[in-house]
Specification:
Helix 8 links the parallel strand 10 and strand 11. This protein is an alpha/beta fold and 312 residues long. The protein is 30% helix and 19% strand. The site of magnesium ion has 3 residues, from loops.
Length: 312
Amino acid sequence: MKTFLTSDPIEAAEFIRSGGIVAFPTETVFGLGANAFDDGAVKKIFTAKGRPSDNPLIVHVVSTDQINEIVTVLSDHAKVFMEIFFPGPLTIVAASSGKISPIAAAGLDTVAFRMPAGKLAQELIKAAGAPLVAPSANVSGRPSPTTWQAVLEDMDGKIDCVLKGEPTTIGLESTVIDCTGSVPVMLRAGAISLEELRKAVSETVDGTGSANVRPKSPGTKHRHYSPRAMVKFIEDGDVEENIARSAYIGMLHPKGNYEKVKIVGSVEEYARELFEFFRECDRSGVEVIYCQSVSNVGVGAALMDRIRRASE
Ligand code: TXA
Ligand code: MG
């Protein structure tokens, strides 16, 4: 298959309308989209990514009409979150109307949806005329792509089209919040922090650390976000032995002797740069990537989560 490149969302939407799959930028990471109601197209996403069939997809919408079509009821908590965070990097889990493709739902009776803030994403969904299911546009297990070139690295020849755009501004995936119960439960840490969620709904529970609980967000149990290189945490950039092909990313200047060093000025910049740095290290054959630990506040929690998973 030849993968078509374009900067025009209208042109990209034509591929969706004819049952194809299209990678596109959102404010978090690039997604790989298909019409949420089209079983055949949804199946192509799972094939292109090599994604386990028990891992459901997020539905991307541009309007409340589209939300009302895919859910049955929305809890008051869900409405509060939507009011504050839509459009933006928050994914809400609610009771499903059963209208989206059962392949995308992976057998669940709930649906996860979000309204992306990126203009190109919004224009693509509008022109496609339907909500789009879209996982991150990487091969399963690899770091999520934050540039269209990284999408091509994984997906060239496997998907119909790439809608090009600027590198993504956030660089980590959306926060997933389950609003089906009596209190909201955060299932995946992401761009919107637990603190921000609790400012909106103070009862919000952190469900991400409960390893003994059956994972409600199935994707969080799979291996994720990993470069080929080994990933390790480091406190201050000081390595004892000098490992030949090693790299470092963090806010502090390291003392060790690394082949590749990336200094970031803030936790936000760290989040934005992490996945692309992983890929850059793989391109140049680095064997160990040391990542400075940061505190678990704000987007730092999601950042630490992604590095921890990459290091497992
Ligand atoms: O920022 C993002 O969320 C990006 C962009 C493209 O929107 N998308 C993304 O999708 O990260 P993906 O497929 O890589 O991750 C989706 C996560 C998985 O952990 C999946 O298990 C969870 O959302 N999920 C999807 N539907 C769910 C549901 N009904 N209940 C609980 N978790 C669900
Ligand atoms: Mg993903």
